[in-house]
């Protein structure tokens, strides 16, 4: 059954035929498309060139996989890494799709066999490396087949401005001549405007539809802390996620070795990974991590793109990444399954300087132009500013990529969670700093200004007579590290400029002047060095309302099957599938098909063993099977308009109706695959437009009373004092909720 219609000019997406959704359900067990997938797939089915920019975990691969199967013929997928190709082909085979890959590891006879398969017309997706496509014989062979679509994965690799330039990608535009009728679709997770334009030009996309999803990853909690005791800070994060997968990124090999050794010594299952190890050693480390026999990989960024493990629960940057794009890409490896994950960045000025030196040296060695070198320096500078800006991390990241962030607080970063202490007299302190910059005539760097404010008697200060300035010693009670940090915080807010690259000098700008005249309120924070002990959204919370013990049993079963088949566990089933299974406890195949992520083929392969484990568990614990689980009947497939769709808005199509029905927060979080924190922020937004009669279903009356009493005692400006007053027994989300409700009540 196909739907025909006349497209109107103001309608960016065409309607996707019903049959497509049947295929989606049968093959993958998904009952809907995410809104941004909807727009991309509509464009792909139309055969129009497309550039899809979607964050990691957004579901890019489905965008080219499902249309390839739906349309028949052959879709070529270009992918930069063997490991990525292998995972995708393995995953597709698991759901019964004919997909193959051609790469350098195939033997001559395997290549011959592959060629025959392609010629037979049964192969839907062919994964190839860009190098392969430079081979003319291979192209000639492919020309004899019905190639109607070319999908370029990780398309930012084509751009020198991107974070992972690969010269081989430059040759891909030649494909246009070989397959003039085929549509070309490019996919990437991170792309600034500059990279986006570069992708379009380099690949020669023809009047492409550009679809940009929100860059926000609401399931990630971001924390950015200054380094104090690096090893201890790393251990603290690993501790919070003991038993789960995580990646610790270090700048140098030495650090990798030290941290690995330290984690092993303190009882973690950790391996190291860096370019100095042999190919074999690296392969072993990677496989151990993918097969979940090891929890933590400590690595240089050499460890990266091939990592497709979907249930990575934390990423620690033990040193600053090279740019905000790198940071987005590297943190993006956490929580690809949509479940909560934590990203902690530990920064230091020393690391930033070292990184600048290393990057510049390697670019010079590669004969990069001065433009590229300056741009890389700028990118590190931007990242460093991000670290020191006391603004919501989710907002900062999203705005960096040119999008707006609607929620006043994300509920999932150190700033919004109140890890940091706001400095009450920020304005006076900022004025003192700025006037000192003015007094030294905007001719000195951060160090010197800090020395003057501290009242130091260094040679430099005395020689220049700066001990005679009115600002000399004005902030002598503050520690040097703290003061430096505040100067950088002002730079981060745009209230002060750092000019020049070799010896950067502090300069005032228009914003500095408004602060000096008392017309603006700068923010300064005292940074905490460790995340405060708190209950934070975690996977165990998602499992809480399912059965944790059953979940663990299913995990073991999954690992066993994966080992037998020589594929990573997530290729068998994702964590979210296991969580749903342990919540539903299905007793029949039909019930099993209700679980999102189980299609026909997987049901046939694994249904019985999983059903058996669930049945045994229920018998042992004398608990019922087939738990009634209110799946939101309200999830509808919404076409998303070009460029406007955001993941968080799409989630609202799930959360808002459920909130109106008064569903449980954890239940809504699971249905929408977001944290309860995000659900609460949706609820708060809803409360701005609608009167909510009661919040008793979400916060017990007694607890509401406790929160109000605490707020009466310590004030309502900040959540943290209330949280502490209640001895951390009530989480921030509930506090926020109760205070907002109270406000609404008093306003009406
Ligand atoms: P990306 O390549 O963009 O990082 P993936 O293609 O790996 O993302 O998808 C991320 C996760 O989302 C996978 O676990 C995938 O199974 C799941 N997923 C993708 N599309 C859907 C959908 N429409 N419904 C439910 N889950 C989906
Ligand atoms: Zn935030």
Explain what you see:
- The chain has 748 residues and is α/β, with parallel strands linked by helices.
- It is 48% helix and 10% strand.
- It has five domains: 18-212, P-loop containing nucleotide triphosphate hydrolases (Rossmann fold, 3-Layer(aba) Sandwich), CATH 3.40.50; 220-419, Rossmann fold, CATH 3.40.50; 423-527, Arc Repressor Mutant, subunit A (Orthogonal Bundle), CATH 1.10.10; 548-621, HRDC domain (DNA polymerase, domain 1, Orthogonal Bundle), CATH 1.10.150; 645-747, Orthogonal Bundle (Arc Repressor Mutant, subunit A).
- The strands form four sheets. It has a seven-stranded parallel beta sheet with strand order 3-4-2-5-6-1-7, with helices on both faces. A six-stranded parallel beta sheet has the order 8-13-12-9-11-10, sandwiched between helices.
- Helix 12 (324-331) links the parallel strand 12 (312-317) and strand 13 (341-347).
């Amino acid at each position: 059954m196909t739907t025909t219609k006349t497209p109107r000019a103001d309608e960016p997406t065409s309607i996707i035929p019903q049959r497509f959704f049947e295929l989606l359900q049968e093959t993958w067990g998904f009952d809907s498309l995410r809104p941004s997938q909807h727009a991309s797939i509509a464009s792909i089915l139309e055969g129009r060139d497309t550039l899809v920019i979607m964050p990691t975990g957004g579901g890019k691969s489905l965008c080219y996989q499902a249309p390839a199967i739906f349309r028949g013929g052959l879709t070529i997928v270009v992918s930069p890494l063997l490991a990525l190709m292998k995972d995708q082909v393995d995953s597709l085979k698991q759901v019964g799709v004919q997909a193959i890959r051609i790469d350098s590891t195939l033997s001559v006879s395997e290549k011959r066999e592959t060629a025959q398969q392609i010629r037979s017309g049964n192969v839907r997706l062919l994964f190839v490396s860009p190098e392969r496509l430079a081979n003319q014989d291979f192209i000639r062979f492919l020309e004899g087949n019905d190639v109607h679509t070319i999908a370029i994965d990780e398309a930012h690799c084509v751009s020198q401005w991107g974070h992972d330039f690969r010269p081989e990608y430059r040759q891909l535009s030649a494909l246009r001549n070989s397959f003039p009728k085929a549509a070309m679709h490019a996919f990437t997770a991170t792309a600034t405007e500059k990279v986006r334009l570069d992708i379009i030009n380099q690949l020669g996309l023809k009047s492409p539809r550009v679809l940009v999803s929100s860059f926000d990853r609401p399931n990630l909690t971001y924390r950015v802390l200054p380094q104090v005791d690096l090893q201890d800070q790393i251990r603290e994060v690993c501790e919070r996620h003991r038993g789960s997968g995580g990646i610790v990124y270090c700048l140098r090999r030495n650090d990798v070795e030290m941290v690995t050794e330290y984690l092993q010594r303190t009882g973690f299952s950790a391996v190291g990974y860096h370019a100095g190890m042999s190919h074999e050693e690296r392969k072993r480390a990677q496989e151990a991590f993918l097969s979940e026999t090891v929890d933590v990989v400590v690595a240089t960024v050499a460890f990266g793109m091939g990592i497709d493990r979907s249930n990575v629960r934390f990423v620690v940057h033990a040193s600053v990444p090279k740019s905000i794009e790198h940071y987005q890409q590297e943190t993006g490896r956490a929580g690809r399954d949509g479940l909560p994950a934590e990203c902690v960045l530990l920064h230091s000025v020393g690391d930033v300087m070292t990184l600048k030196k290393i990057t510049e040296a390697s670019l010079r060695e590669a004969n990069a132009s001065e433009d590229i070198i300056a741009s890389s320096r700028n990118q590190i500078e931007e990242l460093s500013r991000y670290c020191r800006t006391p603004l919501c991390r989710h907002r900062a990241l999203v705005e960096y990529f040119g999008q707006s962030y609607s929620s006043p607080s994300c509920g999932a970063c150190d700033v919004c969670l109140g890890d940091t202490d706001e400095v009450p007299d920020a304005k006076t302190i900022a004025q003192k700093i700025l006037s000192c910059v003015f007094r030294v005539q905007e001719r000195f760097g951060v160090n010197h200004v800090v020395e003057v404010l501290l009242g130091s008697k260094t040679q430099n200060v005395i020689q220049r007579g700066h001990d005679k300035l009115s600002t000399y010693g004005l902030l002598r009670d503050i520690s040097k590290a703290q003061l430096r940090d505040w100067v950088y915080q002002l730079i981060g807010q745009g209230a002060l400029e750092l000019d020049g690259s070799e010896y950067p000098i502090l300069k005032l700008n228009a914003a500095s002047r408004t602060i000096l005249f008392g017309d603006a309120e700068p923010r300064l924070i005292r940074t905490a060095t460790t995340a405060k002990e708190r209950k934070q959204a975690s996977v165990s919370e998602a499992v809480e309302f399912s059965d944790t013990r059953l979940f663990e049993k299913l995990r073991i079963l999954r690992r066993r099957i994966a080992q037998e088949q020589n594929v990573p566990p997530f290729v068998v089933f994702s964590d979210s599938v296991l969580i749903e299974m342990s919540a539903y406890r299905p007793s029949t195949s039909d019930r099993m098909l209700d679980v999102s992520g189980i299609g026909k083929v997987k049901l046939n392969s694994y249904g019985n063993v999983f059903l058996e484990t669930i049945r045994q568990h229920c018998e042992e614990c004398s608990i019922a099977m087939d738990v009634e689980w209110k799946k939101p009947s309200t999830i509808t497939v919404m076409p998303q308009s070009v460029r406007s769709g955001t993941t968080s808005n799409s989630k609202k199509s799930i959360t808002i109706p459920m909130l109106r029905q008064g569903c449980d927060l954890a239940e809504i979080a699971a249905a929408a695959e977001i944290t309860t924190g995000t659900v609460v922020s949706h609820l708060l937004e809803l409360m701005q437009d609608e009167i909510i009669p009661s919040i008793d279903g979400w916060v017990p009356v007694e607890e509401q009373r406790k929160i109000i009493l605490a707020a009466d005692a310590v004030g309502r400006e900040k959540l943290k004092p209330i949280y502490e007053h209640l001895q951390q027994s009530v989480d921030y989300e509930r506090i926020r909720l109760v205070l907002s409700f109270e406000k609404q009540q008093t306003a009406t």
